[in-house]
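Hi R.,

Here's the chain you asked about this morning:
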Amino acid sequence: MPSGKSTYREVSGFTLIEIMITLVIVGIIAGIALPSYSNYVIDARRTDGQVALRAAAQALERCRTETFTYDNCTFSPNSDDGYYELNVTNLSSTTYTLTATPTVGKSQDGDSACAAIVLIQDGTGTPGECW
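And the predicted structure, written out as tokens:
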């Protein structure tokens, strides 16, 4: 029986303010994490191109030790993960220039200064920040 006191009913759930605060915190975390993750993905894909360049250079050097020339030497034209395509220019008996260009639609590195990674037979090429 009612005793004249008002009864307190427990309500479970979240208030609008609590939900809004949670959304703001999640938004801030996402705003910080997404650009960092994107840079990590670009760096990882660039590593695929670097590895492919070094493997191609090694294949050319191995061929030169056997034939004393870079002419008619072969290497894989694509990186292992397919993010870069390799091209050789300036190919002669003593020189070569390898270029790794991003595969269309696969690499996000197309607009940066490191879009095309270059390696010359003497070990020079693209600036150090791309390596």
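The chain has a mean pLDDT of 84.

Let me know if you need anything else.
M.
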